[in-house]
Amino acid sequence: MNRALPVVHLRVPTDEDAYAWHRAFEHPDVMEFHGGKRAELSVYEELTARQRRHDAEHGFCFWTMLDDEGRVLGFTGAQPWPYEWGPKGEIEIGWRLGREHWGKGYATAAARATVERVRARGVRSVVAMVNSRNERSIAVTRRLGMELAETFTSPSSQQLGHCFRLAL
């Protein structure tokens, strides 16, 4: 039986969201597939600034994800693939939640909202790059109807990644 997904709200990240993301992602489980340890605050300060630029340039970005009470849950959204390897020239969708918000449907709800928003901006397909061992994120790609298109080895981590693709 399919349960109803929770309501999520998405906003362009603010300067303050760098602090909220830093706190939300401090749990080692959250960072398991993102370098394995908590990132410095400066990483999120740069990331939120870059996402504001993406929103201004493209009309989409990695948005701050909020629940109905206005609590920051994490982020979700889309951006041009930022690396020289992998799906160059494509639009990547992604999500990351604070550990206490896992298993409640937030990632799927936010990813679906992302797909609708980028489709409305004229994007015709998206990719999601997911570590091959990240079963939770792979499950989200399945719920979105994405299909495994390619595999890559990340040059920085030497980890196997799956590239899932969805035509919009």
Automatic annotation (TrEMBL):
InterPro entries named in the record: Acyl_CoA_acyltransferase, GNAT_dom, N-acetyltransferase
Signal sequence residues: none
GO MF term list: acyltransferase activity, transferring groups other than amino-acyl groups
Residue ranges constituting the N-acetyltransferase domain according to the UniProt record: 8-168
Coiled coil: none
Pfam families the record matches: Acetyltransf_3
Superkingdom of the organism of origin: Bacteria
PROSITE patterns, sorted: GNAT
Protein name according to UniProt: N-acetyltransferase
